[in-house]
Structures are given as C-alpha cells and as structure tokens.
Design goal:
The chain is α+β, with helices and mostly antiparallel strands and 433 residues long. Helix content is 19%, strand content 26%. A hairpin with a 4-residue loop joins strand 6 and strand 7. The radius of gyration is 48 Å and the shape is rod-shaped.
C-alpha cells in the first residue's frame, strides 16, 4: 500500500516539478510558488514538502483533507481522499468508515488476486448485501443489479460465493462447469444453502419450512447421511415415501435399488424403514442379510419384517392385519400373556337356571356334527381362526359342564352304592336262615 501511495504522489508531483517558479497551480491545489531544489515545497503553506528523508502531504492552514483527483472531465472525480482523522476514501469523498470504497451508484468492488475473475468483495445495489466469492463481483450498472451478484469471467470451473443480505438472510451459492461472464450468480437455482431471517436453514431450497430443510425431490446422494451406515432420504421417484435406512443406501444409477455400505461377512445385514406407496403413512420395516454380496437389491429382495399401519394396527411378517390390532405370521414365544378385556366368562354354567344338555342329547349332537356344541368346527377354525380369550372361555364352559355331569353321575353312583349295600344285607340274611 505504501508503494502505491508513493507512486500516486509522484504522478501528481511530476507536473509541478517541471513547472517554472511562479506558475499558477492547477485546482484543487491552491495558487502559489513551487520550489524545487534543496527541499521540495509546493503550495503557499508547504502543503507538499520534503525534508532530507521524507515526503509529506500537509495542510498547515484550515484544510483537513487531501484529495487525489482525476481531472479528465469538467468537474473531475475523486480517486483517493485522505482525512486528518485517519479516514480513507477510494473513489469517494463521502467516507463513512475508516476505509470506504465507492459510494452511491459507483462500483464498490474490491478485487483480490487477478481481478473480478478471481476473488472479490462487494455490495449489491439496492439491499446493500455484502457479496464475497471466487469469480464473483457486484456491479452498479442499472436496476438489473439491484439484488444480484454476477460472474466475473467466463470459464469452465464455475464459481462460489456468499451473500449477507438484509434481516439476517445469508445465502451460499455456486455452480460448477461452464459459466458466462456477467450472468447472475446468486439465482435461486444456484443457491445451495440459505439461512433465513427466522434462523431456518435450507439446503437446495430457498424457502426452508423447518429448522433444517433439505428441499424436495431427494434421491440418490441427496439425502441426509449420518455416519457411514444411516441415511434419511425421500423415495419420491418410486412411491412418494420417506425412507430411513441402515447399511442400505440408495443406488446412484437405479433409485429403486439399494447398496450395502458394508458386505464383508456372512452376518452383514441391512434394514430399511419406508412409508407405504403414495405416502399413505403406513410404515414398513424390511431387512436383508447382505452376506458378502455387494450388488444392489430392490425392496422385493428384502424380507418384510413388520408394518405399522396408520389405524394403529401392527403386522409382523404380514402387511394385512385383517382388522386385528396385532397380526403375526409365525409363532409367538412369551413368558406370560394376559387377556384383560374378556367379553364373557363361563361361570353362568353354575347358575340354577342353566339348562345342561342331557348326555343323550350331547351324544346325538356329537354324532351329527363331529364337534362339541358351542365349539367351532375344524373348517371354521381354518377359515376364521380362533379368539384366544373366547376360546378359553368356551373351553372352560365345557370343563364346567363336564364337572356338572360328573357331579350328577357321582350322586347317581351314591344311590346305586346305597342300594347295593341294602341288597347285600338282604341276601346275607336269606343265606343265614
């Protein structure tokens, strides 16, 4: 910076050095004599002077500003303004900070490296947004530049940038491949991440709907990856469904299939949780043993483990629960099963008004139907299954009926035994006569 200042001083001083003593200086320097030799003095108040070691710009009067101007036009334009308070303006005399570049509709761009095609810092025209980026710049040509940043140079390596806008809005934008000079850089299609004024973060969306929004139409390599093995994605191209997968990521070439992250042993396996087709809400759990086969597989190659339906029913090994709260295809092992809601119990068998079938009627029914009364037949059980609670109650009913039969038979037996004793006594007396 010191070299630049010194060079600019020399450019300004050269005309004065080779001007004869007594010539009128050109505005904005005041009229006065120019002295060359010994020590350099320019201006009446030694505004520009030199001692043996240094060159000074110094107004000793009431002036408190030093300006470098371009006088190519009738009024000229400020190039560099230095203030006694230490403020510096480049391209402006209206300095509002320690260093200000440009003002009003003038270009306020700061280029780093090889110009606007490399790296730049600037502000957009209307909202004053701060733009920083590679191959990015902001210009003030006309109203088309109100809110946008533009590409610095045409190239095949794209650009990347950040815009700090109003009300806390922050955009991260970029594009790869071929780009054209002056094309809009921060268009919606180029915005990769946005933090809006409410603190919501959108990735690949400019309208985040929650604290973190990954946008719409996800798919292979577009979901949320947690570590190596967990992926949260959207299966929109297949069935408009959300998916959470474990050691099963969506295949890049065919989004209807999944690849294992690791398939290095016979025990390597994966699990997928996916919504039902059409986003109906039912949630399916599917698993697969990958083993050592890393080839992509469709969901039909997975084993259906469980379904949680939106009506609160659960199917294990089956999707259609047929209205049951829990439907299981296969056996169930449990240390205890407790049925708490039983529609009836069989104690009514012991009521005085219960009509117990006679054994003759029971025998006739069994001969005709090949099963006990009130108990479903084999064909009915095969077709409709059985209710564990109801069946236990029915079986208890039969046990209680059997108990009544036994009690009745016991009473009858007592009578027979008594009669037998009496007959024995009579027979013994006759034998003894």
């Amino acid at each position: 910076m010191n070299r630049i200042k010194y060079l600019m001083m020399i450019i300004v001083l050269f005309p004065a050095v080779f001007t004869a003593t007594g010539q009128t200086n050109t505005s904005p320097l005041p009229d006065g004599n120019t002295k060359v030799g010994g020590f350099l003095n320019i201006g009446i108040g030694n505004e520009v002077w030199s001692d043996a070691t240094s060159l000074y710009f110094n107004y000793r009067g009431s002036a408190k500003q030093t300006h470098f101007w371009n006088l190519g036009g009738s009024n000229g334009k400020p190039i560099l303004s230095l203030y006694h308070t230490g403020l510096v303006g480049i391209g402006t005399q209206q300095v509002e900070g320690n260093l200000q570049i440009g003002s009003g509709t003038l270009n306020g761009m700061l280029c780093l490296g090889g110009g606007k095609g490399y790296a730049g810092i600037g502000s957009t025209r209307s909202d004053g947004g701060l733009v920083l980026g590679k191959n990015i710049y902001a210009r003030y040509s006309d109203a088309s530049d109100n809110f946008v940043a533009r590409v610095g140079k045409s190239n095949s390596s794209g650009f990347s940038g950040i815009k700090l806008g109003q009300n806390g809005l922050i955009d991260f934008f970029g594009k790869s491949g071929n780009v054209t000079e002056d094309e809009v850089a921060n268009s919606e299609s180029n915005i990769k991440l946005r933090i809006d004024s409410d603190g919501r973060v959108g990735i690949n969306t400019t309208d985040p709907r929650s604290r973190l929004d990954l946008g719409q139409s996800l798919g292979a390599n577009k979901g949320l990856r947690l570590g190596d093995y967990i992926e949260i994605n959207e299966w929109e191209t297949i069935n408009n469904a959300g998916i959470i997968s474990f050691n099963a990521v969506m295949n890049t070439n065919d989004v209807s299939k999944f690849d294992p992250v690791w398939a290095g042993s016979t025990s390597a396996s994966g699990m997928i949780m996916a919504m039902e087709s059409g986003g109906k809400g039912s949630l399916d759990f599917m698993g697969r043993i990958w083993g050592t086969d890393p080839s992509p597989k469709s969901l039909t190659d997975f084993t259906h483990v469980m379904r949680l339906n939106v009506d609160g029913t659960v199917g294990i090994g089956m999707r259609n629960t047929k209205g049951h709260k829990l439907a299981v295809k296969g056996s169930i092992a449990a240390s205890e099963i407790k049925v708490t809601d039983v529609s009836f119990w069989a104690d009514f068998v012991f009521e005085d008004d219960y009509q117990l079938r006679s054994l003759e009627d029971l025998s006739s029914y069994i001969q005709a139907n090949k099963h006990l009364p009130d108990i479903p037949s084999e064909n009915e059980v095969k077709t409709n299954g059985i209710s564990v609670g109801d069946m236990n109650a029915k079986l208890l009913q039969k046990v209680e009926e059997l108990s009544l039969y036994l009690i009745d038979m016991n009473e009858r037996l007592k009578v027979v035994e008594k009669e037998n004793k009496e007959l024995k006594i009579i027979l013994n007396k006759k034998e003894n006569e």
